[in-house]
Amino acid sequence: MLRARPEVLVLLGILLTLLLDPTGGQDSFSLTWEVQRYDGWFNNLRHHERGAAGSRLQRLVPANYADGVYQALEEPLLPNPRRLSNAATRGSSGRPSGRNRTVLGVFFGYHVLSDLVSVDKSGCPAEFLNIHIPPGDPVFDRDQSGDVVLPFQRSRWDPETGQSPSNPRDLTNEVTGWLDGSAIYGSSHSWSDELRSFSGGELASGPDPAFPRAAQAPLLMWTPPDPTTGRRGPRGLYAFGAERGNREPFLQALGLLWFRYHNLWAQKLASRYPLWGDEELFQHARKRVIATYQNIAMYEWLPSFLQQTPPNYTEYRPFLDPSISPEFLAASEQFFSTMVPPGVYMRNASCHFQMVLNEGFGSSPALRVCNSYWIRENPNLNSSQAVNQLLLGMASQISELEDSTVVEDLRDYWPGPGKFSRTDYMASSIQRGRDMGLPSYSQALQALGLKTPRNWSDLNPKVDPQVLEATAALYDQDLSRLELLPGGLLESHGDPGPLFSTIVLDQFVRLRDGDRYWFENSRNGLFSPEETAEIRSTTLRDVLVAVTNVDPDTLQPNVFIWQNGAPCPQPQQLTTEDLPPCVPLTEIHYFEGSGPGFGITIVALCCLPLVSLLISGVVAYFRGRERKKLQRKGKESVKKEAASDGVSAMEWPGPRERGYPVTIQLLPDRQLQVVDRRLSVLRTIQLQPPQQVNLILSSNHGCRALLLKIPKEYDLVLLFNSQEERGAFVQHLRGFCENWFLGLEVAEMSEYELFRKAVTKEQRERILEVFFRHLFAQVLDINQVDAGTLLLDSSQKVREALTCELSRAEFAESLGLKPQDMFVESMFSLADKDGNGYLSFREFLDVLVVFMKGSPEDKSRLMFTMYDLDGNGFLSKDEFFTMMRSFIEISNNCLTKTQLAEVVESMFRESGFQDKQELTWEDFHFMLRDHDSELRRTQLCVRGGGGGVGDIFKPNITSRVSFIARTSEERAGVPPPRLYTEALQEKMQRGFLAQKLQQYKRFVENYRRHIMCVAVFSAICAGLFVERAYYYAFASPPSGIAQTTFVGIILSRGTAASVSFMFSYILLTMCRNLITFLRETFLNRYVPFDAAVDFHRWIAMAAVVLAILHSAGHVVNVYIFSVSPLSLLACIFPSVFVNDGSKLPQKFYWWFFQTVPGMTGVLLLLVLAIMYVFASHHFRRRSFRGFWLTHHLYILLYVLLIIHGSFALIQLPRFHIYFLVPALIYMGDKLVSLSRKKVEIGVVKAQLLPSGVTHLEFQRPQGFEYKSGQWVRIACLALGTNEYHPFTLTSAPHEETLSLHIRAVGPWTTRLRETYSLPAGDSSAKYPKLYLDGPFGEGHQEWHKFEVSVLVGGGIGVTPFASILKDLVFKSSLGSQMLCKKIYFIWVTRTQRQFEWLADIIREVEENDRQDLVSVHIYITQLAEKFDLRTTMLYICERHFQKVLNRSLFTGLHSITHFGRPPFERFFCSLQEVHPKVQKIGVFSCGPPGMTKNVEKACQLINQQDQAHFVHHYENF
Questions:
Q1: pLDDT in tens, 805-830
Q2: How buried is residue 992: exposed, middle or buried, by Cβ count under 10 Å (0-12/13-18/19+)?
């Protein structure tokens, strides 16, 4: 290997230095010598990093870690550091140095150390070697709690070390490892620039030229709080090259000394060389100061410290490693600590030692060390003269004895870390030694070739035996376990012991000989021999004299040693008794005062959904009012005029119920009528003579109450506004009674007694409940005990109930009908045998027995008698017509009089009675001859007074079976398989467990694809959660965040990944055009595209749950971060926090409201609360526009999500990883929709159909292709261009126009109906135009893929099938080749009124259906019980009408009308028989969830058989 010549290396160093421009200015090129870099780099041209800031410490002895790599030795392997500190270093102060070393030498040593090495910066991730304080410690555990722990954070280490026993952890030196004045000029170019004034080559000064500028940003000066006063901030601290140069006034004074010395030299050079610029002046002054500093440290201070003279300098040795060793740091720093006195004198040039002022203590002879740490604006040091006095005082004061004793100012009152204001300096130093992996005392001696003591007494004969014994006891008398720090202190007395002396001398020699810029190196071109000689003759005394301008005779020649006879001897050796006491330990509670605010903030965030709910409630209320107003406006108002003698009052319903306003009307025919505000009749009271009208008036409380006793009914209690109004009503009632020959008896009592005497409606209902229970008990032969649970004293109540009689209104209510219904009048008149207007228990029982136990003949005779109105024993046509009218009433009068007359005539004609005008009972029963089985099962459905009586005693009825088919085979006489279509009632399994298991099984079978998609999506989300949680718990780059907030970071990061994925891919569920396209592909077999909206809701709900957990995790994080020290936060958030020693973390509100992630997080919670509440089913039904508007906050949501994750507090932004692809797809889908939306489409025809249905027919856009069963979104320009609503197309694809049938169920659809309702006769008006978006696909469009399809619609859910039916008939009429050969259309509806608007469509299908492709069945569910008398008669009439006229009695269609619910399972079984060769049958249902579940259940049950397979597609609304 070639060796480079030294001259070449020097030239290379000059070139590198000039290229890197260390001076920062063009004047640097006028310098004739190589300028030394500030950061220590390129001092050694072979090993550029040696001595550089940030380089690792170089060990003299192998590391001693617990695991050999990085884990520090701790208890119980080594003693407790606080116990060791007390045992080895505790002692009294006031013993002078054995060598008369001065205090100035002690703090000059600290200054040299700050220039050479700094390992105070905490490492990241944060690791702690906390100091456990022994219970009852007099300083740190005065309360004897036993749980005091002083935090100790391990120092920063080189990340390339600590990986194996051969590469153990090494700490890094944060400053340059050279005697290069870095404590004066800083260890970086930028730091030096901040210290410079850039004028005259001087360092920048503050208002006083003798002081540098104040510490301020961007300088990262260490600014911890004053442990004495708690004062914080940079005010009162100065900008030095050393980060901790303001630790105490004594170290600060030396920094000021060198600051002034540099400026003094700059001024000298400026006067000597007036043409030099700032850079030349600064670099020459810096060069001279550094050289002087090197000379004093090496040749004046070091010999006084070690009492040894270093060997003479020979030459620069480039192969010598000058790196600082951790052993040197420990040896020098700990030896200095033994010499620090409890106080420091101040004197002037005339040897007068000054008294100093102490806050709260008065004056004292010296500055107390423990009360001077990080002091701000010390009143004793507020001028350059005072600083001079402190320097002179330190030069005259003798330090403490060089032994193992350390004064309490360091041992007990050193500035503390974290929330503690104080700590133990010696215990911390011991922990620092363990952190650095220092060897034991014996290992160090052996490695350095020094003599090893054989036992404890060989350590040092001058050591106090008690100290030695206590220390040995802590190490269990094992000398091999004794650590380097306590061992080195114990061997020292008067001078450093052999170990410390060897380590320190070796370090300084290596620093001198390995420094290319050393002032004695003649090859670096820095100084001439004359200048070198001048520097060698300069002492610190010369520097002090030059700076302070004092007489040289006031200082001894060597200011580091005070000799006898030297000027200005100290008054006495200071002790703690002569000084003010140290301010004791205080503990900072980071969260103190923040608890209430933190709680209020969390509660406020939790209340965001409540606030949103309140707002939505207000919006829904006003929208509800608007909706009601529209509904009222759209209806014809039927007004009832109140009688002229109507009186207003408040009716009192009972003691625990609220009264309501009513109007009392006295009507002809002896009727008293009670109506409400809307003039709806609440009650009619029939007064019959010789009935006595009993009236009771209240006699107190304003005499406003009135009680009208009504026999056999509940009483009427009225409250009037005043006694005068009540009197007027009584007078009016008296005249009414006289007019109709009714007796009136008036009594008075107190209002309280009046209320007690009144029989309320609630009491009457309890009486009727007992009435009906015993009534059914007798009819059904039920034990009287089972008739109802009665009280012990209920015999009287039973007698009262059995003697009571039912009014016409109560009888009608028990049947679920209105009192004025014809059926009620007929039945009531038949049962009321005594004609008193009431039904007794026996009268009701007689009728009920016939219906419950009577034969078909008994029931037909009863009906015959009921409607034999004139009682002549014959039933005329008019009476038969009246009977039928009473039956039709329960179906909302679905037939007109003409239609009903036609039915009656056809029934007479079919039975052969067309020539008869009257029927005997035999004739009437003959007409019902084919329906004996129906009559046998016919009953009277009685609800009962208490609600539920009929349900309790209703017998288990089995539905009858009938088969209806109208096929060509049947007409040809061939008995084909018959289609089962008869209505039935579904029976539920009684066992709760069996029912739940069945529901679970049904759910799994019905939602296989859904479950699979949800499982895959959930697995991805769970995987993202686990991956992020694992990453931050175990695999993330070390920052300490997992150790700080393990639960919080796992919860917040894991949920963040899942929520990011969910909120990104939820966009795909709204890509309607993409879904429409994909459902036509093979993917539709595996992905339920029709459930996109349901999946959207599911993702949204899961995402909001995870968002809440994410917020909860951050609440935990915020709390922990609010109570964590700044050193810890600086590791976790290096881009946000800088550990400057200020300790206090940010308050909780800073995290919530003053950071970008916090503020956007709060806004996200607000946006989510608004979106989710307004998207709820309850609110969406009341204000779709509110839902639509608030849901467009999704744009703001995604903006906030992007910003929220982009601040990169913990990790780099990741949201775009999930968001980019779905966002691009969604934007493309949106662009497709926007291309259609803004095309105005004219409405060709608008028609208002019954049942609130609006039929719109509008132009078909060019190129608009769709399939039957698809849906579109429309916006009406007259109602707003941005509010779109979805509706299914009812037009067929072959039609030239598009059509919709829209039912008015909300404000928008109601306004739409109004918008398209033109005034009568105005045919020239133009309809408002529409915006159209679509078409969009759903499962119903696949009907043509099956040879046989079943369409099941519930209520308005029939709309998708209108288009399908028309499309099928059209294609068949053209002879198109279709796979579908047969369609069964089933519509389940509550009342036939709901399909009036569809009648024309079905009729058109029936007329064009030449090939009998469509079979229509309509099921009406809103009727009385299946075998109620009225329903049975309706069934008979419907079947008769279907048989005779081949069309439905109710609809006029050929389709069959049934009463009840469709028997899906049996219907599907019969389909397999009717179509035995069909392998797959498609079932398409749309309607309420209950109906679609029943269809799905039937399909699953049938699919268990080895026959045709039913494929179910459904949609709920």
A1: 777 777 777 666 667 666 667 777 76
A2: exposed
Q: Determine the average pLDDT of the residues in 1354-1367.
A: 76
Q: Which tokens in the block code for residue 710?
A: 């009504």
Structure tokens at 1125: 């020290």
Widest Cα–Cα separation across the chain: 160
| Tens digits of residue pLDDT in 597-624 | 889 999 998 888 888 888 888 887 887 7
Q: Is the pLDDT of residue 1144 over 60?
A: yes
Residue 92, CB-side half-sphere exposure with 13 Å CA sphere:
7
Distance CA 794, CA 800 (A): 10
Alpha helices in 462-583 (DSSP H): 465-474, 484-490, 498-513, 529-536, 540-548
| Interatomic CA distance for residues 254 and 654, integer angstroms | 95
Angle at 941 between CA 939 and CA 947, to 5 degrees: 150
Distance CA 1313, CA 1304 (A): 7
Could you give the CA distance from residue 63 to residue 444 in angstroms, rounded to a whole number?
Answer: 10
Mean pLDDT over 1236-1252 rounds to: 77
Residue 1482 has φ and ψ, to the nearest 5°, of: -85, 135
- Residue 337, classified by CB atoms within 10 Å of its CB into exposed (0-12), middle (13-18) or buried (19+), is buried
Q: Which amino acid is at 1286?
A: P
Supply the Cα-derived Rg of the chain in whole angstroms.
Answer: 51
Is-contact 343 393, C-beta < 8 A? no
Note the residue count of the chain.
1517
The model's confidence at residue 1006, banded by pLDDT at 50, 70 and 90, is low
Strand segments, DSSP code E, in 716-850 are 716-719, 743-749
What sign has the CA pseudo-torsion 158, 162, 163, 164? positive
- How far is it, in rounded angstroms, from Cα 1514 to Cα 1512? 6
User: How many angstroms separate the CA atoms of 857 and 877, rounded?
Assistant: 21
- Cα–Cα distances in angstroms (integers) from residue 1457 to residues 960, 1119, 1437, 1446, 1486, in the given order: 16, 68, 11, 12, 19
Contact between 556 and 541 (Cβ < 8 Å):
yes
Asked whether the beta carbons of 945 and 768 are under 8 A apart, the reply is yes
What is the number of alpha carbons within 13 Å of residue 56 lying toward its C-beta? 15
Strand, coil or helix: 697: strand
Where do we find the tokens 């695991």?
Answer: 67
The fraction of the chain above a pLDDT of 70, given in percent, is 83
Q: Which residue in the block uniquely carries the two structure tokens 């007395």?
A: 493
pLDDT tens, residue by residue, 469-490: 999 999 999 999 999 999 999 9
Mean pLDDT calculated for residue range 95-124: 94
Q: How far is CA 1250 from CA 692, 1304, 1313, 1366, 1439, in A?
A: 49, 11, 12, 21, 26
CB 38 within 8 A of CB 192: yes
How confident is the model at residue 1216, as a pLDDT? 80
Work out whether strand 422-423 and strand 647-651 pair parallel, antiparallel, or are unpaired.
unpaired
**Cβ distance 181 to 293 under 8 Å?**
yes
Tokens of 1013: 């998609």
For every residue of 1309-1354, DSSP letters joined together read HHHHHHHT-PPTT--SPPPPPEEEEEEE--GGGGGGGSSEEEEEEE
Contact 1179, 1187 (CB under 8 A): yes
**Does the pTM of the predicted model rise above 0.85?**
no
In which element (H, E) is residue 1439 found?
helix 1429-1445
**Nearest partner of 383 among 509, 248, 210, 499, judged by Cα:** 210
Contact 1300/1260 with Cβ under 8 angstroms?
no
Spatial CA neighbour of 1122 closest among 1093, 1154, 1078: 1154
Report how far residue 730's alpha carbon sits from residue 709's, in angstroms, rounded to the nearest whole number: 14
Which residues are 1247's β-sheet partners? 1255
* Residue 828 CB contacts under 8 Å (≥ 6 apart), including other chains: 808, 811, 812, 839
- Residue 1490's pLDDT is 75
- Rounded to whole angstroms, the Cα distance separating 1080 from 1082 reads 7
